[in-house]
Amino acid sequence: MKIKRDVYKAMIQHAIDLKPIESCGYLAGTPTEINRFYPMTNTDQSAEHFMFDPKEQFQVVKEARANGLKLVSVYHSHPESPARLSEEDIKLLNDPEMIYIIVSLREATPAVKAYQIRKPNEDTIEIDRVELTII
Amino acid sequence: MKLTLNGQNETLENETLTIEELLKIKDVKMPEMVTVEHNGEILDRAAFATTAVKEGDTLEFLYFMGGGSH
Fold first, then answer.
1. pTM assigned to the model
2. A24 φ/ψ angles, rounded to the nearest 5 degrees
3. A74 CB near a chain B CB, below 8 Å?
4. Domain containing residue A81
5. Does B65 touch chain A (CB under 8 A)?
6. pLDDT surpasses 80 at B47
7. Could you say which residues of chain A have pLDDT below 70?
8. Domains of chain B, earliest start first
9. Which of A47, A93, B14, B55 is deepest in the core (most CB within 10 A)?
10. Residue A33's beta-bridge partner residues?
11. Is B21 on the interface with A (CB under 8 A)?
12. What is the CATH number of the domain that holds A88?
């Protein structure tokens, strides 16, 4: 998946600005390129959890659609832990079409990793790494 | 029945159906994790089984989005 450099930088800056709270947002674009960042409210206002506001979600999906964009990715930060999917992430992230990006701020240099999660049945969870190419 | 689902016009053979039935028809995975906006109003999940979809309705489906670092 390609991601525009300004979008990539805006996402990381959003995470830094909101630390120690977990930050979150939608990323929109085409099936192969992310070119728009929508920062979202973490209604949990927690350093260890995030939750989108459904009203804001519906607003953003409509705005993206009006601009001819599709929501293709959800990002959230891990202020104090690595850029890996946590057990809670794997349990709660259920949209098979989304690419889930995690920005870790544990080290001085932010780490960014992306994943796709599929749950074909109750007993199976498939997790794939997604390579992000900054353009 | 004609309705607008996630911004797309849809025509269904059903004359009547509930939100819960619509989620099944559209093969939405993990429907218990889906939030539904029905004609501009966000529905309680408990109402999915009893809320009827009517001709001309506008619906949006979104996945609940949350997680954590542990």
1. 0.90
2. -155, 165
3. yes
4. 2-134
5. yes
6. yes
7. none
8. 2-63 (3.10.20.30)
9. A93
10. A2, A30
11. no
12. 3.40.140.10
Determine contact: B58 vs chain A, CB below 8 A. no
CA atoms within 13 A on the CB side of A72: 19
Tell me if residue A77 falls in helix, strand or coil.
Answer: strand
- Residue A32 has what pLDDT? 93
Of B42, B65, B68, the CB nearest to A52: B65
Backbone dihedral region of B30: left (phi > 0), alpha (psi from -120 to 50 degrees) or beta? Answer: left
Q: Which residues of A touch B35 (CB under 8 A)?
A: 54, 57
Closest CA in chain A for residue B61: A58
* Structure confidence at residue A120 (pLDDT): 85
Contact status, residue A39 vs residue A33, Cβ threshold 8 Å: no
Both tokens of B44, joined, read 């309680």
Tokens of A90: 């794997």
In this structure, the dihedral spanned by the alpha carbons of residues A49, A52, A54 and A55, taken in order and rounded to 10 degrees, is 130
